[in-house]
Amino acid sequence: MSVIACRLPAATIEPPVSFRPIDAADLPVLRGWFSDAELARRVAYPADDWYAHVTGRYARCWIVHDGAGTPLGWVQVDRADPDIGHLDIAVRPGLRGVGVGSEILAAFVSGPGRAYGRLEGRIAPDNRASLACAQRCGFDPLYRRDDDGFVRVVRSMRPRGW
Description:
Helix content: 10-25%
Mean pLDDT: 89
Low-confidence stretches: 1-10
GO molecular function, one term: acyltransferase activity, transferring groups other than amino-acyl groups
CATH class: Alpha Beta
CATH superfamily: Gcn5-related N-acetyltransferase (GNAT)
Protein name: N-acetyltransferase domain-containing protein
Number of strands: 7
InterPro entries: Acyl_CoA_acyltransferase, GNAT_dom
Organism: Rhodoplanes serenus
Order of helices and strands: EHHHEEEHEHEE
Oligomer: single chain
Strand content: 25-35%
Number of domains: 1
Structural class: alpha+beta
CATH architecture: 3-Layer(aba) Sandwich
Domain N-acetyltransferase: 17-162
Radius of gyration: 15 Å
Number of helices: 5
């Protein structure tokens, strides 16, 4: 697998970015982020049924921390197919627009994301920042929109030639 070159964030975060499985104790902090209208319209609210889903058989969710233990966001992967992970990323309000999303995504694809043969995401067409982030981190956009109007982005996690 090739090394991913993404811009490092301009925000002050302590390297390295790390991932740990979500825990019920994380929910109050994550729910507090939803006073941010942009986050609230882009990702699912971390309700109890969401938590049951992301800790169940067909999904995983990781809390992303910097080296100082500060939560930066979360990464959720749903797995309907044994080889394909459907990706959803949330970046803590106040850290968007400065490269933190790229840092999270780059660290994920070179870390926990290696467990998947292919990662896919669905991005609202007006979310240019997320589309640019995905492209910087090696995802290819499929410009034909899906049935819900989202742009799909895809990244093969296997080395070319497999």
